[in-house]
Amino acid sequence: MRAFFLTILAVILGFTGGLYADRIEPTKSLIAQHVSPLLSRILPSPPEPEPVSPLPLSEEAEALTTAELAAFGIESCFPRAVLAETEDRPWLMRDVGSQGLFDEAALPTPPDLIDYPGLVKIEGIRSPIGTEREHCAAARVSEHWFLTAAHCIIDLDIETASPTYDIIAVTPSGDVRGEDTQVVPITGAVCHSAYEMNRQQYPNDIALFYLEDVSAFENVVIAELETPSHNLIPFDFRQIYVAGWGKNGGTRYLQGGPVALVEPGEAVLIGERIGPRGPNVGDSGAPLYLAREEGPLVVGTLSQVTQDAEQNGDRSIYIRTKSIHEWAMRTMAICEQNDGYVCTPTPPPTAPDVISEESVADSL
Fold this sequence. Notes:
The protein has about 375 residues and is of the alpha+beta class. It contains 5 helices and 16 strands.
């Protein structure tokens, strides 16, 4: 009996010690290096998610209806103004827009874009000649699709709302007004239907936009997104960082830096800026990267930064990628069919004019 109790005690102590060791460095690193590979060979791997089937179009339809999209948590959210359909779109010329708030010589060396796979700049055109713009960022997540914040696509805050004449994607570089910079208007965009369409709210602040012509972005690699199968814990988020072309760089120069994770939620990540070049106004939609040996992993999309005048950008809120991964995969499968974008809802059928008996009599 004594031997039995000693065996049980040894098992309990061993299990408790294993849990403690898995949370302490450098023991955790030793476990990850030697024990984890062994367990991965013994234990079954988690099942791969099943591929998402697209929502088929009927033979007569050219696009999906609003009701069809809403059933999958998708809302078309790119209200391009009619003026943008004209041939004269001056914002497509590289030299239109803000000159930037800083001289390049006064800024630190820009981050190396190789550490920021998929990162691009986007600008919402808010005036007929393109001088008023909303500045954001995005991550390329497939050949034609880019992930960003919903409020970068549409903002229905009554106090600041203005027509969106266009939204352009800008090829990434240390200086987006450089000689090789190209701009491409987006084809369409969809937001999470649970987003409140107001920048004062961050839940579900997520959107995907589609570029039909991606030839200008052939050098922008597709970013890897966090999924539930990555099984990350808060300890894994020791090296996270972000960059963009916002206020830190005068909306022209790429700037960024490390972030300290202070609240590791399953749906939302809250970070604290480390140093002067972390996330700032104009970086919304930027991907939050986790440094790994296998390469950077996108774990979040920037929704908000603090607006305090003295601590601008001190805290930042990110929509965690794994929480919207299934939505994103399903949305891309539904909204891209037959090599084209189909999530511009079809307008409701026009009711026939009602002809009164009097008008008929008058026409006889």
